[in-house]
Specification:
binds nicotinamide-adenine-dinucleotide, 12 helices
Length: about 375
Amino acid sequence: MPIRLAVPNEIVPGERRIALDPVVAKKMIEMGVDVRMQKGAAASALFSDDKFEGVTLIDSAEELYKDADMIFKVQPPTLDELNMMPDGCVIASFMAPHLNQDLTQRMCEKKITSLAMELVPRITRAQSMDALSSQASISGYKGVLMGADRAAVFFPMLTTAAGTIRPAKVLIIGAGVAGLQAIATAKRLGAVVSAYDVRAATKEQCESLGAKFVDTGVSADGEGGYARELTDEEKQQQQEVLDKHICMSDVIVTTAAIPGRPSPKIISAAVVANMKVGAVIIDLASEGGGNCELTKPGETVDFEGRVVIHGPLNVPSQVPVHASEMYAKNLFNLVSPFIKEGELELDWEDEVIANTALTHAGEIKSERYKNSGEQ
Ligand code: NAD
């Protein structure tokens, strides 16, 4: 019997993405999967139900979940949602495991196999499944557009009849996936871009995209390509050089994160007070508390009518069509190698599956999660 894939409506307020798009739905059906979606679930991502040819539309989440073999979701399931799911089903979704220990526990009790998209290993073979990257890239792009929209100046240099306009100075802090996309986007808009990351390895990447790298003389290269936490002395040295650049910038997009920990505070209130009048900070690290001391996650702070600090949450959701298409493709690339004639058989010898599984057969499977001490 073919497996039943269920794709529900996302219930977190403001979430506009969906874990399926018409292209992935078609491919799944061609593989023999019985694809089911909650009626109207894709409307927030601007896909109407009639675009999902061959997909069975189900009225309620309860009815959808009750006999599902596999579930695709964007946001971590709530306890209520988990309770509607059959024991032993497979769910692929973001899980934010360090914030949701109760969910992990419940998934163990229900012997649910959960594939947590945050845990997809950052190896070359898994790039097409890497939802953190696909969504971060959208944030970087959109973050720059938010900055351009709020800026008091043009981004490009303009030669006009009324004189020549100097290009905006844009500073990108944190040059991971979001930061690199932010650099590329700000360059396309014609700004003069500089960038900074604690990992020295990013210098070449920033420069290859046309940004000038801010060299503070501090490197925080850590394990697995991630940043380590800096010592107090290193932080001070980093800060002094960075502050100068911050105060010269018209728009700053911050993306600096340390996985599983609060975002480092890189822009102090005192430095904001010395920034250019009309400057804008777009703090894409708001989910983790933000990189600016004055950031209020989910809000826009107007600092004395001089500097605007915007702390958007769930930015990929603001580009719901492409964010959903990319995310659905990531899910498809993760599970489709294990679907044969409509049946799903995960291979536990497979490096990607073994690392991405958070729970399986009543146990926490992820070594990374267990070792992180966050459970
Ligand atoms: P992230 O979202 O965890 O962090 C964003 C950036 O902030 C990182 O570059 C980090 O070094 C930087 N940062 C942290 N603290 C900082 C501070 N105090 N000041 C300035 N910058 C700071 O990063 P990410 O986008 O998830 O990428 C993490 C790593 O994974 C990168 O090395 C990236 O190249 C790598 N990666 C590899 C693959 C792959 O090979 N398949 C895919 C995606 C990402």
